[in-house]
Structure formats: structure tokens, C-alpha cells
From TrEMBL:
CDD domains for this protein: GT4_PimA-like
InterPro entries given in the database record: Glyco_trans_4-like_N, Glycosyltransferase_grp1
Source superkingdom: Bacteria
Coiled coil region boundaries: none
GO molecular function annotation: glycosyltransferase activity
Name by which UniProt lists this protein: Glycosyltransferase
Pfam families xref list: Glyco_trans_1_4, Glyco_transf_4
Protein's organism: Sulfuriferula multivorans
Length: 378
């Protein structure tokens, strides 16, 4: 039997996706399937997040990126590799010019294509005509790899066959993250807290993520001032980088109880989760919810229509909370949690339990089953 090839096309290879691709490569290889991941160097705007990397040459294929219309359209010269593959999986994003080409090539039976993504722009900040195009094209594929059950339902509701949809349960490498957390013992926690000027008894809120406008860092700083007034000794730790990192820098320079430590990855990032009590993200919530839960940190956010599908993993008042988009309301809920140790302990336990339901192994298993089903479907 001839070896089959699956080609996944990504605009950029992200740090958090590396473990997924590593494991997917191994699992597909055991099924006699070769994985190729095509990706490009981040553009100047994307590079500000400082979270891209190069993939191993065993499966990674880096190509040039040609951006147009102010980074709103992208072309990657990999048409030949895609056509040669038995299945090409693309991000369901309107910016990818290749996607439109694949739709045409699929009509002539020259490519078998699958989408991987959100189904629509859940942030509601895209143009109406682009969303219309995305909705029309979502049916022009052979398979769908949906991030969550809500995405799968949206795809099916818009006319895609339910027997050609795989719910991957989008995740990250939680097991490695938990090991890194476990290696950070009480002595090291106290040392890190001490280096930041945080006492052992102080309440700590953590933000970790890309620092762009949809994360609402201005809101977070404003709410933190209120929380600090209500909770003596409260500290806020900000981890990440991006276009809005100046907000974090200025807040840390102004208030000694706010600490900006820049971008961190792996064990260095886990250290800050280990010394925190809760996770604060009033803006867009994505995969960070799973890392927070893995560390036993309940997540506090707001009800703005910006969240990625992974917001479904949050259960209000159980493993976190969702408040109105008002700094005072947000501060009240967070402060109340700090003032009720029993409730906080219960929420932390629920967060850890929630993290057990999602993980990289499960995601890869789902993904492989979807690939096999697609390749074997007539």
C-alpha cells in the first residue's frame, strides 16, 4: 500500500502548537501516514507577540509569506505540496488566498481539502462581507476539524454534513505543563514571590497571554486598582508581549504591586502560574483557560462578545466567573472570591477537575480519527 500524506498549512508556527504537531506526527506515522506542516515567518505585526518558532525538518516545511492589503491577505507558495498530498488541511480564515484556490481545485477533483478552525469569527470584529464569504465557503470542503462542539454545531447548522465533522476539543500540552508546575515546590514559590516583593500571604492575580487590544489590558489595570483597594496586599503579575505591552509596562512602573515580566514559555511561564491564586483575563479568552485550570486557577472574565470557542470550558461560579463588562463589577466579584477562602478553594479544585477533561492526548486522538475517516471516506 502506498504511503499517504497529510499536509497542514499554517500562517505561523506557534510555541503552543509544537507539542501537538510532534505528537500528531508520531501518531500518523504509526498509521502509515506522513505529516507535513507548511508555515511561514510571522509578519512584523505578528512578530510582536514573540511566540513563533521553527518546526523540526522531519515534518516542518517553511515557505515565504507574501502579505497584501495591510496584512489582511496572505499567499504562501506551496500549491505543489498541497496538490501532491492525499489531504490538505487549512485554517478556515478569509485571509488565506490559497483557500480560494483549493476550493476551485477541489471541484475538479485535484485536491481533498479539510478546514480546521472556528467556523466563524466569534470575536464579531470582522467585516460582514468577509463573514459571508466564510459562511459560504465552509461547505466547500471534504471534512471539518472543529475546535469545539459549539463550532461543530455551527458548521452543521450552516449546511455541512454532520458525519464529516470531527470535534477535536482544542487543547495544549497540559501534561508537560502540570509536570513543570509540580517541579516548582514551596521553596521556589517563596523565592520567586520574594524576588517580586510579594509576601507568602499575599493574594496574587495572574494575566498571561498575547498583549493586544482584545485582551483589554486597560480594563484589567483599572479593575486591579479597585481590587487592590478592597484586598490589602493584592498583587497583579502580567506575563506576555504584544502591541499593548506598554500598558503593562506603565502600570508596573507606576504601582509597585503590579509586576510586568515580559513573555515567558515552558517552565519559566509555569513558575508564575505556580505563585498565583486566580487568573484574570477580562478580554478575549482562548486556550489560556486550560493552562489556568491545570494550575488550579479559576478564570475571571467578562461577557463581551470576543471570546474564542474555548470559553465553553468555563462554568460560571464553578471554575471561574463571567461578569458584566464593567471594571467595578469585575473587581467586586474578584474581591469577593479573595474574601471567601472556602469558595476560592472550591473553585480552584473545580478548575483542576475541568483540566482533566481536556488534554493534548485527547485532541490528537480525535484529530487522527478524523484524518483516517476523511481519507477512507469515498
Amino acid at each position: 500500500m502506498s504511503v499517504r500524506t497529510v499536509c497542514i498549512i499554517q500562517a505561523v508556527a506557534k510555541q503552543y502548537r509544537r507539542p501537538f504537531f510532534d505528537l500528531l506526527y508520531e501518531r500518523l506515522q504509526s498509521e502509515g501516514i506522513v505529516l507535513k506542516v507548511v508555515y511561514s515567518k510571522p509578519n512584523d505585526k505578528e512578530a510582536l507577540r514573540k511566540d513563533a518558532l521553527d518546526l523540526p525538518i522531519t515534518y516542518g516545511h517553511k515557505v515565504r509569506a507574501y502579505w497584501f492589503a495591510g496584512y489582511r491577505l496572505l499567499y504562501q507558495p506551496c500549491l505543489g505540496q498541497a496538490i501532491a498530498a492525499d489531504l490538505v488541511i487549512v485554517e478556515q480564515a478569509s485571509k488565506h488566498l490559497l483557500n480560494y484556490m483549493f476550493v476551485v481545485l477541489r471541484v475538479f477533483g485535484l485536491v481533498r481539502m479539510a478546514y480546521w478552525g472556528h467556523g466563524r469569527n466569534w470575536q464579531q470584529d470582522g467585516s460582514q462581507w468577509m463573514e459571508l464569504v466564510k459562511r459560504i465557503l465552509l461547505r466547500r470542503a471534504d471534512w471539518w476539524f472543529a475546535y469545539t462542539a459549539r463550532v461543530a454545531q455551527y458548521v452543521v447548522d450552516n449546511g455541512f454534513a454532520s458525519d464529516r465533522v470531527t470535534v477535536v476539543q482544542n487543547s495544549v500540552d497540559l501534561e508537560s505543563f502540570k509536570k513543570e508546575l509540580g517541579a516548582f515546590d514551596d521553596r521556589r514559590k517563596l523565592a520567586l514571590r520574594g524576588s517580586l516583593g510579594i509576601s507568602a500571604e499575599a493574594s496574587v492575580g495572574l494575566f498571561c497571554g498575547s498583549m493586544h487590544v482584545s485582551k483589554k489590558l486597560d480594563f484589567l489595570v483599572q479593575a486591579a486598582l479597585d481590587i487592590h483597594a478592597r484586598v490589602p496586599g493584592f498583587h497583579l503579575v502580567l506575563v506576555g508581549a504584544g502591541p499593548e505591552e506598554s500598558v503593562a509596562r506603565e502600570a508596573a512602573a507606576t504601582h509597585e504591586w503590579i509586576h510586568y515580566v515580559g513573555p515567558r514559555f515552558g517552565a519559566d511561564k509555569a513558575a508564575y502560574f505556580a505563585i498565583a491564586d486566580i487568573f484574570l483575563c477580562p478580554g478575549l479568552v482562548g486556550l489560556a483557560v486550560l493552562e489556568a485550570f491545570s494550575a488550579g486557577l479559576p478564570l475571571f472574565t467578562t461577557n463581551i462578545p470576543l471570546h474564542s470557542p474555548e470559553i465553553d470550558y468555563l462554568t460560571d461560579s464553578v471554575n471561574g466567573a463571567m461578569t458584566d463588562f464593567d471594571p467595578r463589577s469585575y473587581a467586586e466579584v474578584v474581591s469577593a472570591c479573595f474574601h471567601d477562602p472556602v469558595s476560592l478553594r472550591r473553585m480552584r479544585e473545580s478548575a483542576r477537575e475541568a483540566s482533566e477533561a481536556f488534554g493534548l492526548e485527547c485532541m490528537v486522538d480525535n484529530y487522527v480519527q478524523g484524518v483516517l475517516a476523511c481519507l477512507n471516506k469515498s
